[in-house]
Amino acid sequence: YAKAQSNLAWLLATSPEAAVRNGVEALKLAAKAVELSQGKDASMLDALAAAYAETGRFREAVETARQALELAPPPLVPALKARLAMYERQEPFREK
């Protein structure tokens, strides 16, 4: 269920609603998803980076987002680059 864990982690890390966000739980779920995917899925790494940012761990968010960029299919690259820039500015990502 790696994809489901990653999707839930994304929601918990990036929701525009503060009451929905839970960075600690997002981090647990995203880390497990990345582990299950052996770190070879860009979208799961993206969720982990978002969770790191949500918990204020911006250095790890930047490193993880860069790993995601290395694996990302071309359609995902622009969004990943935009999020990476946010993490470098120490800003978490929020869905609109």
* Average predicted local confidence, pLDDT: 97
Q: From the alpha-carbon coordinates, what is the Rg to the nearest angstrom? A: 12 Å
Uncertain ranges? none
Please tally the β strands and state the result: 0
Can you count the helices? 5
Q: What's the shape?
A: globular
Q: Estimate percent helicity.
A: 55-70%
Task: Give me the secondary-structure category.
Answer: mainly alpha
Q: Sheet with the most strands?
A: none
Offer a concise description of the structure:
The chain is an all-alpha fold. The protein has five helices and no strands. The relative contact order is 0.18.
Record the SSE blueprint.
Layout: H1 2-14, H2 23-36, H3 42-54, H4 58-71, H5 77-88
Task: Supply database-style keywords.
96 residues; 0% strand; 69% helix
Your description of this structure?
It is a single chain. By secondary structure, the protein is mainly α. It is 69% helix and 0% strand. It contains 5 helices and no strands. It has helices spanning 2-14, 23-36, 42-54, 58-71, 77-88. The chain is globular and about 30 Å long. It starts with a helix and ends in an 8-residue tail after the last helix.
